[in-house]
Every structure is written in structure tokens, then in C-alpha cells.
Amino acid sequence: MDYSEFIQLVNCGMEYNFYLEDEEYWISHNVDGYYLTRVRDSYSQEFKTAEDLFGNGRIDGKSLLELWNSIKEYF
What we know:
Layout: H1 3-11, E1 16-20, E2 23-30, E3 33-38, E4 43-47, H2 50-56, H3 64-67, E5 71-73
Antiparallel strand pairs: 1-2, 1-5, 2-3, 3-4
């Protein structure tokens, strides 16, 4: 999957789990917004839209696009 497919999946309402350096993360949503959550301690960033999440969500100060090549899909 490439980054644009990833964005489309999230925009369509799919939840997505992934690993980054052995740390699990989860992208989810509900009627209030979209969330980027670190699973270990449930630390979450909240966004009104998926576009806001992709534009402003950060892991260790980096955007998901900057981290894309290091992200491993959850199976």
C-alpha cells in the first residue's frame, strides 16, 4: 500500500493499526473526530477531520508522511 491508499482508507472510515520502531499505534474515529493513539499508554491526539490528522498528527515530532517508509502494517 502506498501513502495515498493509506489516506483513502482512513478517509473511508477504516481503522488502522501499525507499528513504528516496535511501538504500536492506532488510527480510529467516531462522531467526534479522528484519533492517532499510541497503544502502550493510550496517549491520543484528537483531530476534527482525517485531513487534519494527516496534516497535524505527529509521532516524535514527525508527520505520518515523513514516517511512512518506517511504518510497518499490523497483521
